[in-house]
């Protein structure tokens, strides 16, 4: 699907289970960004979108937690963005354009990464539509560096960039357990860190986000938020992470809120031959489609 | 070992650690059913029996929890059933015959799967000997469909079939976290679902089964009951599962009860190169042999 | 794409590189048959079609040997057949229907397996259109058993079935290096075996097929024809096989002939983490599309 | 680096992140012992030291828990010991010599195994410097056999040997969940077993070690102490183990104590293609360097 | 099967396809030696015997090259030797005893390794029965070191030891392509090296062995003789090796000779997830059983 | 080793077997370029240098073909270049600087990639010292695109760039078997393609290069020149490639010529768990060190 000279969606790698391939009547739109150009440790997130789509054929359409069935929802899978080589700025800009395209059609975007740096593009595309946007970041890493190896646009700096773009400067960070001394100092000073312990998500997240009921929320889920035991297939696994049960608690909180867009990033499927990482990511995608379908 | 024209046990793939190869003085009999003919997602459970046997050479014979040693017990490993192609009915019938054969000799069967559909055969073989049989199912999936893709005998329908066969209609299901809307409705209405949260097994299971002390119990353990992190080597891993500690709690409950047969199904060992799935399954087999050895 | 009550093509797993998703102006039609229900050793060919499609994005569209470019050709990828459980007869019948559907539209079929037993369906669908059909089988195994484990329709009997169906009884077998004593006796007596040595393909195949120039040819390629070193990702690898250079020689011969349909079967991609098996299969698919595009 | 006729350190396989390659100003010294000669189940711990070093390039230098940065510490990585074939006694003696060498220079040793039997050498080297030494063993196995398969020096007997050497006979064992009946009897009688349940480490360990504040502590960490889900890459994984959060609790206790040496043993990296085992081991090594840097 | 105080065969890991489990009427006896204690690079040959047995269930019993069927032969699989820790001398001595045991019963031994050092034991056991024995070694490495890392009994010195034992000092070495300068000098001077090029085996081997028709031959096959592409699952793969076609040529020569014993060593199955290495080794074992069955 | 503000060699990942870590008396200098920023298919060549170094400990120092021993040669391993994110121009420029640095010291460079685009930097650094340089490219792909996805500096365009830089415009390409129609047309017109068939290397290469005896030669070896069976661990394997025997023929030709620099690129080691790809690459590195040591 060629949108304009630069923006092309490639759907040769299949679709997420139950998706339409056109936007008709859809309020939710999935697209992939198979980009891993700034990965510093173990690459391979470019295969994330196709792995999530492929494995999605093995999951049930019904979610007992949300009591919803994908078969009752309408959502489109546009395919994956065709992306160029070289500087990440171009990719981030394409993501911005794609996000704007969906927002203009009244479609809530769900991005499948690719590495975390793509989130900057999504936020940049959304702020004009939702200037009061609040970001909820689930991640093992703060990603708050201002610059890294001479570059400002990469997975290690992405949340710094997002904060700069965001008028509200409102961002919650949960699960951060690796970073520089400076990053941890900032997290503490700005009181952005909600919790960093598996099993304690429900209360602390609910409390922190209570004041923002009804406000537009963007969820960015770096899959290394999870413990390496349940998510080995990611570039930078960090011991001491979260479990599905914690994400189920996140779902409980978010379903009270106004989720308007989300991304799932940093799945590097070839690092996990058992495929449990891709299966987890696909189940999360199912949950997010359902959460995005809730009208607030 | 050829029993009759149809029933042949093949012991070319080794035996479970400490087993005899003949039934003399044995009260417990292991046999494998290397069948994965109706698997819908990722096949390979046909290699389950040989993987459990092979890896069993690496585990200790002593169990500190039960304070028993395999070296003090007598049990036979008959080998794996030779099974035909085509319709699963034939396989289920062979399992039924094999189970009857053991029951007639006063030997408690422990089946090593293979996919879950084999349980129907075991139950069918046992009901005549124990009409008051109660089934305890540990599983991520309800397996209660009446029919699937035009077939009535497969892993997705197996518990429906078992319920039909069972005079008592008494079945407890624990750990179910994936299924259709209809299945979850039934679980709720029939109050069959004991618990679905890791860490809460001991109390709820004990309470639910209290009224049935002394009754004959069949334990069917679909290994996807476990969390994918501890059991990646199964066809349909489902996030949010149980840990060894939970199974240890199950052991505590079962040891008060009259376990008369059991199966361990859905190990697909080649999906897990680290072999932790097979090691877990072998440790469970050790526990079940010990539990089956307890006279009630 | 639902054709009728039984025949549905599922295109959720992507398409072969450069394919259309509708039949318009197409003379060649790809479809997958993700069936491995009678596999006797190592299963997993159900993932063959999606692996070939997925990896096809990594190959060039130009073929220097045939001096053709996929970009200049028109071909449709219909997706993969939805298939039922149980007896293989149903699957074989669906393949027959799908093949007839394409033949009626004047589209030459290219099947992506799945296990070898599906070839029976394709031949059954084609014979009415081309009663004088000749089969060229590249395979490590004769597949000439009349019955196996009580079944007549499976990968070990498939060529026996095809011979029965085929009015001409004309079949060439190349590369057979494993089988029963009886099968090898028949191969010798019937003079069906063309060659069984890597490096000697060109001459012997050319000579054997010379008399049939212009006749309709069906190529069935069981990927275990290849040596395990170049094709580890197949259920029953057999040492002493063929190399790409041998297949290139096959291409040279076939391009003089009237190829009207073909299949590529027995790719079990998860057995080969390096993916060289899928890459080889995709390159073969590219060659076959081009060979099918040559008008005779 | 050749120390004397028998003792040679080989640094061809790289260094732990941030290490010096000479001892100047260093109070902490890392060295590897790539030995797996008595492994009884799955070998491969010989690759442990190089895997930890290699993967260490992917971890952050800052530790938020200890609020320390490797960049502020001085430590040497001497490389790995060159070791001979044959009887383990020679290897154990080399480890002893290497440990003495470091102790004489006032450098606290951190050994990277290799299998557990090497600990005997380290303890033997330290006792003359610290006769009041106390050992804290984190392990799934008691390793208290007196003899195994006719040998006294191997991974199954290592703690028996250490107890014999140690004047204080003071040893704490945590996490033991597999062993012989005799071993468990001894653990109970001697009250050496601190705890064996994930989630209960902090209190029980703190209490048990309280009386020994200021005493020299040796930590030997057999990585199979961890649960197989977070540490699949070890020779003898044992279900029901500990998580990173438990080790974080261990850190909290140890940082009050006088840690004077430590080892990390039984990493078999090639068993875990996802590399989460090596990443966990490297993060532990980072923690231990920091703990060894604390002056008491 | 316990033979005497030291010699025990363990058959818990299954049997080679078609084997008996007792010696009755057998002229050929298989046994495993799961030893990898002196491996210098990548260990894991201890799993060789079980891998060969396990995978043997997937191969045909008929061999078209030799026109023989395993079903027509009688051979026993005794299981694998129980072996101690520590110095390799003990293992080599056990192999010697086991070999003598078979020779005394008139049974030709086929050893499944384990590493190459076990060959010394087999030769030591046979020389008294066949003082005029000739060894044919297929290998990538000369294994002619006199001593290595202070030891005389290991895989790098094994052929030196065999030559010392052998009264005839008659040994042919084929495929050697890696070693020390000194080893290659000796090979050249002694004219022991037959050929080292794939595709040239038949003639040179036939010519070299022509003078020894009727003499007792021992074939020792280090699987790294093969090219890494067909045999990745070995500890020390060496590029530039041989293919199945070359081994087929070896078969053609050996079948004229009086093969009285053989070994297949250095299979490290876990290094090759595709299992093509084990499949090749099993096919070779089938060939050797057949060659050993030929009466001369 | 920090050379200047931008040029830093990191030697934390070990050294090639037998290397010095300083330049003293060395005529040959190895350095790694762990760059895979423009990889279009499967990334991971960033791990190439460390894999080659790590596995090099398992190979013999003696080469029977060249009759040389690494122990008799002097060469330095400088470590791997620290490289920035973003545009590949920076990396290429660093490679240029590093190459110039070595040339100025009279040291012949051997680069370990990393992807192929780094060759441009090496050529750019050498041309001033050797304006009459001739390039010999062994590769499966022509890499002659002028631009790709909007970029001029990447692996698909690297030889186009090299030709532009090279005053002599003299380049030989061997093994090219994949590319665009336009690339093949150019190869044919310019007569740059020497041979594309395994087994025919010796004659054609010798003849083609005969006129250039004594001229400075740069060998760039894209490892996908090899057949996928012997080199599965590369990003874009292409069926129909070359074997070790062919590279041995290349060695025979090059040893008559004046090799002044070389690179080994496109090893993606994590794609090949058997490690035969890394072993092959290390053996090639050994050969190239020896060839670079020959004075002409």
Find the CATH superfamily of chain A.
Answer: Ureohydrolase domain
**Greatest interface and its residue counts?**
A-B, 21 and 25 residues
Query: Which regions of chain A have little confidence, pLDDT < 50, spanning 5+ residues?
Result: none
Biggest sheet strand line-up of chain A: 1-5-2-6-10-9-7-8
The CATH architecture classification of chain A is: 3-Layer(aba) Sandwich
Pfam family, one (chains A, B, C, D, E, F): Arginase
GO molecular function (chains A, B, C, D, E, F): agmatinase activity; metal ion binding
Binding site for Mn(2+) (chains A, B, C, D, E, F): 116, 139, 141, 143, 222, 224
Protein name (chains A, B, C, D, E, F): Arginase family
Account of the protein in words:
With 296 residues, the first copy, chain A, is of the alpha/beta class. Chain A has a single domain, classed as Arginase, Chain A (3-Layer(aba) Sandwich), CATH 3.40.800.10. Helices cover 30% and strands 17% of the residues of chain A. Chain A has helices at residues 48-56, 88-104, 119-126, 158-165, 181-190, 201-209, 244-254, 276-293; strands at 9-10, 28-33, 62-63, 68-69, 75-81, 108-113, 134-138, 171-174, 216-222, 258-265. An eight-stranded mixed sheet of chain A has the order 1-5-2-6-10-9-7-8, sandwiched between helices. In chain A, strands 3-4 form a two-stranded antiparallel ribbon. In chain A, strand 9, helix 7 and strand 10 form a beta-alpha-beta unit. In chain A, helix 1 packs across helix 8. The radius of gyration of chain A is 17 Å and the shape is globular. In chain A, 65% of the residues are buried. The interface between C and F is medium-sized, with 21 and 24 residues.
């Amino acid at each position: 699907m060629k949108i304009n000279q630069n923006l092309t969606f490639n759907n040769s790698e299949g679709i997420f289970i139950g998706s339409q391939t056109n936007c008709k009547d859809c309020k939710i739109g999935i697209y992939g960004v198979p980009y891993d150009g700034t990965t510093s440790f173990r690459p391979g997130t470019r295969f994330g979108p196709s792995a999530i789509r492929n494995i999605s054929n093995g999951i049930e359409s019904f979610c007992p937690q949300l009591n919803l069935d994908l078969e009752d929802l309408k959502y489109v899978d546009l395919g994956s963005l065709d992306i160029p080589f070289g500087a990440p700025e171009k990719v981030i800009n394409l993501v911005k354009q794609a996000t704007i395209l969906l927002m203009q059609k009244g479609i809530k975007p769900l991005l499948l990464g690719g590495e975390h740096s793509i989130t900057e593009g999504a936020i940049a595309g959304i702020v004009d539509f939702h200037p009061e946007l609040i970001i909820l970041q689930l991640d093992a890493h703060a990603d708050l560096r201002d610059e890294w190896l001479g570059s400002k646009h990469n997975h290690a700096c992405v949340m710094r960039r997002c904060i700069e773009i965001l008028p509200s400067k409102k961002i919650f960070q949960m699960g951060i357990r690796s970073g520089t001394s400076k990053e941890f100092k900032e997290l503490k000073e700005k009181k952005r860190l909600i919790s960093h312990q598996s099993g304690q998500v429900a209360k602390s997240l609910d409390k922190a986000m209570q004041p923002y009921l009804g406000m537009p929320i963007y969820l960015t889920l770096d899959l290394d938020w999870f413990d390496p035991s349940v998510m080995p297939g990611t570039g930078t696994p960090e011991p001491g992470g979260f479990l599905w049960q914690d994400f189920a608690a996140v779902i409980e909180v978010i379903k009270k809120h106004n989720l308007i867009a989300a991304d799932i990033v940093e799945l590097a499927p070839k690092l996990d031959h058992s495929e449990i990482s891709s299966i987890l990511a696909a189940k999360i995608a199912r949950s997010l489609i359902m959460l995005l379908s809730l009208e607030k």
